[in-house]
Amino acid sequence: MREKYLLHCPGCGRPFPDRYTLDCPSGCDALLRTVYRERRLILQDLPGIFRYASWLPVEGRLRIDAGPVSYTSIGLARELGLPDLTITFSGYWPERGGRMETCSFKELEAQPTVLRLREKGAGVLQISSAGNTGRAFCQASALTGAPVVVVVPASAADRLWTTVPSPNVCLVTVDGDYSDSIAFGREVCSLPGIVPEGGAKNVARRDGMGTVMLDGTLFAGRLPDAYFQAVGSGTGAIAAWEAAERLIADGRFGSRLPELHLSQNLPFVPMVRAWEAGRRTIVAEDMPDAEASIARVSADVLTNRHPPWGVRGGVRDALAASGGRVYAVTNGAARSAGRLFADTEEIGLDPAAAVAVASLIRAVEEGLIGPDEHILLNVTGGGYQRAAEDLDRYPVEPSLRVRAGEAFAGDLRDAVRGWLAEREVAVRA
Ligand SMILES: *Cc1c(COP(=O)(O)O)cnc(C)c1O
Ligand SMILES: [Zn+2]
């Protein structure tokens, strides 16, 4: 194959070129995957995630130096009796080389996604996210100038900030909940020139997040026996599985898939329940009192109601293929795990990363992993305190405010078209 990569549908087996394609052209219910020409991972002499550019669905690079950083744990490892514990950290921690200034691994997704879209000439990205994803895309826009449309519930707008000004973000706040902003975001994508980011279907998102598995494996010289991560959509876990399969095909890092140890935060644990019940789809009884449960978790980035669970190539397949496990973690267990981590590793965690640490503690207590195993802990976010001390913080100001259920028409539509036109994006309709 001449191209750097092709997309491949695990449903019908067809390969095809990438046009920022999110779905199989034949309509299969499957996550498309990238297939790279280079089966052996060739490292690039570049900072951040572009070190792994040969396995990212982009041709060029961005001048951003943020990427995952891996190191051998001493403090936490000793505490848990795990001599072979690699921590891969995504967040702000300059002493260790951690330069994700919005403090979560969503930056791993935002960077290649912005570049992929630019290279495919497909338009302007639209993102609906109330948390780390929205902030990561605002930051990528601030650093690259790429225009993005971000739609969030009004109550969450204060979570969107960047460390440099972001003049090319169109922030729309919706007077409603997260589902209302998703619905409005979908309508905004009816405007020619605006493209949905795509979530788990976006191969740039998954391959960007997969650099955690690449970095941890390259650092240790081998694939881990077990991989720990807290999951909301589970996209990061699918990405870890896919990256591990590529590393196996590379041939230098081992031949066994790492067991995926995935955790959610009680009382909202739909994937834990669906897995334990052996269900292919997530049903209402996996999310009793969804709204009230979501309000009670400490790590609300883990509260996705529609994760890519049963789709071919989704989270359930990843767990099954790897012989993985799931954990339901209480707020209390997450809090004390976060404290232990801060005491032993000397950096503060995102509440979601604390959930993953709690699952690791539980796995040790229950003898599910042992001291002879090589463990990779994906610390998906942290360093907020450090970032607040060191860096400037610019709140992203809303461009538009809409009511829940308001139609994307008339003045609203004109306002977004005007915003696009100012950025010289061709809008024909
Ligand atoms: C989004 C997020 C997660 C969960 O990742 P998924 O890919 O959605 O499962 C975990 N930790 C942090 C800090 C996050 O921002
Ligand atoms: Zn197909």
From TrEMBL:
Modified residues (N6-(pyridoxal phosphate)lysine): K106
Top-level taxon of origin: Archaea
Domain Tryptophan synthase beta chain-like PALP: 101-381
InterPro entries per UniProt: Cysteate_synthase, TrpB-like_PALP, TrpB-like_PALP_sf
Binding site for pyridoxal 5'-phosphate: N132, T380
Any Pfam family matching the protein: PALP
Needed co-factor(s): pyridoxal 5'-phosphate
MF terms (GO), sorted A to Z: cysteate synthase activity
UniProt-listed Enzyme Commission number(s): 2.5.1.76
Pathway: Cofactor biosynthesis; coenzyme M biosynthesis
Subunit description: Homotrimer.
Function: Specifically catalyzes the beta-elimination of phosphate from L-phosphoserine and the beta-addition of sulfite to the dehydroalanine intermediate to produce L-cysteate.
Protein's recorded name: Cysteate synthase
Source organism (scientific name): Methanoculleus methanifontis
